[in-house]
Amino acid sequence: MKLQILFLLATTISWSQVKLTQAPDRIRIEIDGKHFSDYIISADSAKPYLHPLRTANGKQITRSFPMDLVEGEKRDHPHHRGLWFSHGDVNGWDFWANEKNQKGVGKGRGEIKVVKVKDIKSGKKSGSVSTLQDWIDGSGKRLLSEARTMTFYSEPASGLRTMDFDITLTSIEESVFGDTKEGVFAMRLVRALEEESTGTMTSVDAEKEKNVWGKRSPWVDYSGTLDGEKLGVAILDHPGNPRHPTYWHSRAYGLFASNIFGIRDFTRDKAATGGSMTLKPGETMRFRFRVIIHPGDVKSFDPAMSWKKFAALK
User: Fold this and answer.
1) Which residues contact 308 (CB under 8 A, 6 or more apart)?
2) Which residue of 4, 159, 167, 229 has the lowest C-beta tally within 10 Å?
3) How many domains does the chain have?
């Protein structure tokens, strides 16, 4: 009987198309037998993040710096690590520019620490990881508890790499999310995909940074040419998210971010109000995003159709 059970377990693992493996400082994600990304949960990191992100055929679309030094890469903004979720002003503490060699703005830098890996699942069509994070200010006080589930999908026929993020923030102390462009759900792309290189960002009704940055849209796609191949990545904002459709903090130098809090910066109106948001103790705020790394450009991929499918999820 024991041999039969072991055989069944081994068979199940071999059939799994999305495999997640935990190590002390990371969770490794493999899709269809290929390394896709690592979820970095190291205690030494100022925040958890995914690095790198790869296409179905293995091309890396996120910048290597500061995790690795690659010749020819820009080395600005060391807090732009892979794909991450943070904000530049919570009760005056900076959880965005919060590397240990940075001072942060306002009162200084806060940190986001993974305190528990709740669940890891591998599977034939999808795999997921659920974690708990604490947002801790510079004085050591816990401001927020973050529950995050990330789901990764196997879609071998499509050539896509799709990820879903379900993030719920629960306030421990009264927490004020300040009005700043420095946030929130973000990634930093490789140089070849930057708009300053071959890339173009496209929203529901506009193209290029000058027409996308600071504007609202349910989705934005950032596509270009990498090693001779046309490809791109889209971020989809779920209609159940606060203040949907989100504003976009997306730059020609490769920063690609959704941010509902930076209204004063985005409208360039110093007198504008309404960007900040307050959570009283025990109150929650939930965000859901879908990220799709795709072959081809924005026209062949059709992010609008993908957003409709994502929006239909309850």
Assistant:
1) none
2) 4
3) 1
